[in-house]
Design goal:
Number of strands: 19
Strand order of the largest sheet: 8-9-10-11-12-13-14-15
Strand content: 15-25%
Number of domains: 2
Number of helices: 13
Largest sheet: 8 strands, parallel
Structural class: alpha/beta
Helix content: 25-40%
CATH class of the largest domain: Alpha Beta
Bound molecules: N-(aminocarbonyl)-beta-alanine, zinc ion
CATH topology of the largest domain: TIM Barrel
């Protein structure tokens, strides 16, 4: 099967060029000014931008929270939503069960995705119950293509690891080419603040943010960077939310520590006043780290533009409103997380590219090429070049939409951006050469997404 995308303008992280793209089966065969070749399908991209498919390296699909509650999207609905928004690759977080092996967790998540995913997927591994045997397994995971491990400095008694365990994982990653991803918030101090708030009768969603101040994110980032420095290992900070934490990263970089950072649209676009919404509405935005002061957003945009923040992922972790209600009388029981997998590219384009905060090339870099590179998928993903997977988005800069739970493809029953108008969006989305979205219609098939064995970092 040969597909020719003609007359478009190719936008990569490195350049913007008028070019046709020829696809042979699943792969890009040629990129050139005018390609004269027989094709079974010709897509006219005149007046459109041609982008590499988005890479969302932080999702939580089908993630169990309790025996009765899981995140609202499974690998089918979650990846359909991703595809409808122009994302053609996800890296989801598999989670070790307490007392369980990492191999069992990986098999569990493979089972969740198999036959359901409509776009390609890889896995990180959340390690929450370390032991010498589990440490040993980290090497096997890397060999299986799971080349990044998420560790938590928050959620004591559930997910949190102490500094010694984090340090041991950093040493292991240094030697096996893995990458440690850290949820950086000082969990024990947050626990004290939460206990004191609840004892004072402060049970509403707004107290979620008040008990997780940015300084405690910054403290954890600074501590993690020191551990990485002593271990001689790189470090990836997930869902960075505050300028205070960013300053710690920059301080560590000045000492030569390799610290990479991801932020999310919610920290660029939303702010903590949403926790003061009527009734229990603030619960929709309960996520960790929490939304910050409105003044925190511009420094994050600047850091994204100037390269201090490397990637934008969603941390898509949607819980239905009925599940959020678990915390109706106690904010600390509200399931943490919010949806976003479908709206990452449109929001970043509308609020980033259209406003001049980001160039189109930087947009491609932070949403596709950089996550592909950092997580061992480049140049198969995140690039438009011969040999890369034909994951492509024909992007219409004039397309308009109003974001709403009534029209989104996630199974969650609210949107964090309800009613927000956006300009710019995907017209056609191709995943390994197949058209899976065309003008708002989903044409893909569950099970067509493939597991991605990711490469380790070069040591
Ligand atoms: O609140 C959040 N972010 N929930 C998802 C899990 C995590 O910490 O990334
Ligand atoms: Zn986290
Ligand atoms: Zn997350």
């Amino acid at each position: 099967m040969r597909t020719l995308i003609a007359n478009g303008t190719v936008v990569t992280a490195a350049a913007t060029v008028r070019a046709d793209v020829l696809i042979e089966d699943e792969t890009i065969a040629a990129v050139g000014e005018r390609i004269e070749a027989h094709a079974d399908l010709v897509l006219d991209a005149r007046g459109r931008w041609l982008l590499p498919g988005g890479v969302d390296a932080h999702t939580h699909l089908d993630m169990p929270l309790t025996d009765a509650i899981s995140s609202a999207d499974d690998f089918e609905s979650g990846t359909v939503a991703a595809a409808m928004g122009g994302t053609t690759t996800i890296v989801d977080y598999a989670t070790q069960a307490r007392g369980g092996t990492l191999a069992a967790a990986l098999e569990d998540w493979q089972e969740r995705a198999r036959g359901r995913a409509v776009v390609d997927y890889g896995f990180h591994m959340i390690v929450c119950d370390p032991s010498p045997a589990v440490e040993h397994e980290l090497d096997e995971l890397v060999a299986a293509g799971v080349t990044s491990f998420k560790l938590f400095m928050a959620y004591p008694g559930r997910l949190m690891l102490d500094d010694g365990a984090i340090f041991r994982a950093l040493l292991r990653a240094r030697d096996n080419g893995g990458l440690v991803c850290l949820h950086a918030e000082n969990g024990p101090v947050i626990q004290v603040l939460v206990e004191r708030a609840l004892a004072a009768g402060e049970t509403a969603p707004r107290h979620h943010a008040r008990t997780r101040p940015a300084r405690l994110e910054a403290e954890a980032v600074g501590r993690a960077a020191a551990l990485a420095e002593v271990a001689g290992a790189p470090l990836f900070i997930v869902h960075l939310s505050s300028p205070e934490a960013l300053a710690e990263i920059e301080r560590a970089r000045e000492r030569g520590v390799e610290v990479l950072a991801e932020t999310c649209p919610q920290y660029l676009l939303l702010s903590e006043d949403l926790y003061d919404g009527p009734g229990f509405a603030g619960a929709r935005y309960v996520m960790s780290p929490p939304l910050r002061a409105a003044a925190a957003r511009e420094p994050l945009w600047r850091a994204l533009a100037d390269g201090a923040i490397q990637t934008v992922a969603t941390d898509h972790c949607p819980f239905r409103l009925a599940d959020k209600a678990l915390g109706a009388d106690d904010f600390s029981k509200i399931p943490n997380g919010a949806p976003g997998i479908e709206t990452r590219l449109v929001l970043l384009w509308d609020a980033g590219v259209r406003t001049g905060r980001l160039s189109m090339n930087r947009f491609v870099e932070v949403t596709s090429s950089a996550p592909a590179r950092i997580f061992g998928l480049y140049p198969r993903k995140g690039e438009i070049a011969p040999g890369s997977d034909a994951d492509l988005v024909i992007w219409d800069a004039e397309r308009t939409a109003t974001i709403s739970a009534a029209t989104h493809h996630s199974r969650v029953d609210y949107s964090a951006y309800e009613g927000r108008g956006v300009r710019g969006g995907p017209e056609t989305v191709l995943a390994r050469g197949r058209v899976i979205v065309d003008r708002g219609r989903f044409l893909g098939r569950p099970g067509d997404g493939r597991y991605l064995r990711r490469a380790a970092r070069r040591r």
